[in-house]
Amino acid sequence: MPPDVAGRDVFTVAGYQDLVRALLARGYALRGFADADPAAAHLVLRHDIDQSIQAAREMAEAEAASGWSAIYFVLVRTEMYNPFAPAAARDLTQIRALGHRVGLHLDAGLYDCEPAALDAASATECAVLETILDAPVEDISFHRPAQALLGHEPRLAGRRHAYQPRYYSDMAYCSDSGGSWRHGHPLDHTAVTEGRALQLLTHPIWWTGPAAAPADRLQALLDARGAVLDQELDTHCASHRRRYPEETSA
């Protein structure tokens, strides 16, 4: 498939790999936030884990198989998942073992986007995540950031964040928010045609598993989470196990 059309509308792991290969074919080189030059053809692969750490691990495995390194941002305060849960903690450890970085996905809205509160919260939440990872956390991204935080210059608790001008405005930024390229496809971005740096933000939930509409992917996630909760209740709560009387022979 020619690089100009590879991965353009296919939201699957293979489609994601095609997209990254298309960018690499344009002369891009993979970089982390620490060493990305906005004026160079550098590509930062960023993943915000909004719904599923398991989906993130699947994405991380595919990237590692292609020899790529990315950064995965994890929510600490969310109803969507528990990063301390044994399976989730194992997945995060595996993501790091595959050669990727893990950062904090900070829900700034919980702190009214107030600078001092954000700085304190960043320090606290990074320390929590470092406990899970047994490794330092050096990067932060905002979850659903308010407009005022786009281009926010100061570091947070001494750490880089993905919306500092260097990463958000000095270099190009593309996101698959909501399961589509709402602001244009990455391959059509002016920065790509000019060979300037690109921060490519994707959310693993939109790419893993069979191709499906965003709403269907979320329903599948909901069904899977319900099954996990049902199993946990069966394991730990006798009252739940007694919902269905045992069948008796006639």
SSE order and pairing:
Blueprint: H1 13-25, E1 29-30, E2 42-49, H2 53-65, E3 71-75, H3 86-97, E4 101-106, H4 115-133, E5 139-142, E6 160-161, H5 165-168, E7 172-175, H6 190-194, E8 198-202, H7 214-236, H8 238-241
Parallel strand pairs: 1-2, 2-3, 2-8, 3-4, 4-5, 5-6, 7-8
Helix pairs in contact: 2-3
Assembly status = single chain
How would a crystallographer describe the biggest sheet? 8 strands, parallel
Helix-strand category:
alpha/beta
Mean pLDDT comes to 92
Global geometry: globular
What is the number of E strands?
A: 8
What fraction, in percent, of the residue positions are helical?
25-40%
Straight-line distance between termini: 63 Å
Give the radius of gyration: 20 Å
In N-to-C order, the SSE pattern is: HEEHEHEHEEHEHEHH
- If helices are DSSP runs of H or I spanning 4 or more residues, what is the number of helices? 8
Unreliable stretches? 1-7
Beta-strand content estimate: 5-15%
